[in-house]
Amino acid sequence: MNIKDYKHRTSVTVRFHEVDMLGVCNNAVYLNYFEYARLQYIKDLGLLPEAGIFTDGDVYFMVRNEINYKSHGFYDEKLVIHSRISFIKNSSYGFEHIIIKDKTGEIVADGAGVFVHVDAKTKKPISIKQHMIDVVKNYEPDLKILR
Questions:
Q1: Residue 49's pLDDT is what?
Q2: Residue 51: exposure state from Cβ atoms within 10 A (0-12, 13-18, ≥19)
Q3: Alpha carbons 109 and 101: distance in angstroms, whole number
Q4: Which domain holds residue 54?
Q5: Cβ-count burial of 146 within 10 angstroms (0-12 exposed, 13-18 middle, 19+ buried)?
Q6: Considering its fold, how many domains does the chain have in total?
């Protein structure tokens, strides 16, 4: 993962309740940071429905989450989350993330996740809409389309 390949950035500050008894940001919290970054990415690209999330009938299930821990975040430390959609298949797409310390650039964690677009009634996979593919491809020129 090369941080230069990530155009989208958002930041978080480690809050007191996210720190565990060892004084570091708890490992499970990073999945929440990834989720926050994904939503910001979708908002920033204009892919969130105008009436708000879940109002357009599109349903996406998270089917995979992975994370690699490199160092630790600490209370009140600003972390920057670099995100991208790296591939789109027929009914799924993948996000990748790198979290760094704002002050030092040290990598704290990296990870990835896969979403599947499903029919709201049957919960079976369905094709991702061309509009989403076009918007992401315009933002991420190196996006892999794997149909």
A1: 85
A2: exposed
A3: 10
A4: 3-145
A5: exposed
A6: 1
